[in-house]
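Email to the structure team, subject: Small ribosomal subunit protein uS2 model.

Hi all, the expression group asked for a predicted structure before they design truncation constructs. Nothing fancy, just the tokens so they can compare against earlier work. One-line instruction: predict Small ribosomal subunit protein uS2, return tokens.
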Amino acid sequence: MINDLINQMVEAGVHLGHQTRKWHPSMKKYLLKDKAGIHIINLEETEKCLDKACSFLADLARRNKKILFVGCKRQAQEAVREAAEATGQYYVNHRWLGGMLTNMSTIRKSIERLVYLEGIEKSPEFKSMSKKELAALDRERQKLERNLQGIRNMGGAPDAMVAIGADHEDIAIREAHRLNIPVCVLVDTNADPKEIDFPIPGNDDAVRSIRLILDCIVKAINEGKGASAEA
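Reply from the structure team: attached below.
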């Protein structure tokens, strides 16, 4: 019996994979058929996987753990930021800098540099700087802000990662694995789900698909936080 969530997934295009010639064989168990050269994802499998991921994340939220949302492809950027803000968590949605998890000392220095640049007008050297120097520092500030705004207050490695696109965010996922950080990933038909703790098979290119999956995750995390507050 098709439920409301699966109906919503169909409307959002979660079931639409890549062209059959671009598929990854490890995704076979999540696929239903191909239609006009496009792989169709079995949404019953998607729902089961999403439920597992949401249960895991809700439990983390119940224990006040940190969750990092990652989605740097254009279609995911805004939705990832909104999901993190809606749950009081952290995000990277512009560019994953190598070492964001495995070289936290360098990242902390970059965050300190951002704080300095944000308060540059209060520094003793500000009045002696030329317009050209200040313009260059402002460009640096904007770049650091784009890359670090969502993790500046994270204060250490997260307890889990939620990523949009296994292929697009492979560097972030590899860093998480090196630190034994569990990852929940929206995985399209062209990617390998084998190394992902909680794969969620689905369209990772459509904005509506990404938003629907993230909405479910946001709801689960907030319910977990609510249960923690009531305890």
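The CA atoms of residues 66 and 158 lie 5 Å apart. The mean pLDDT is 94. Ping us if the truncation boundaries need rechecking.
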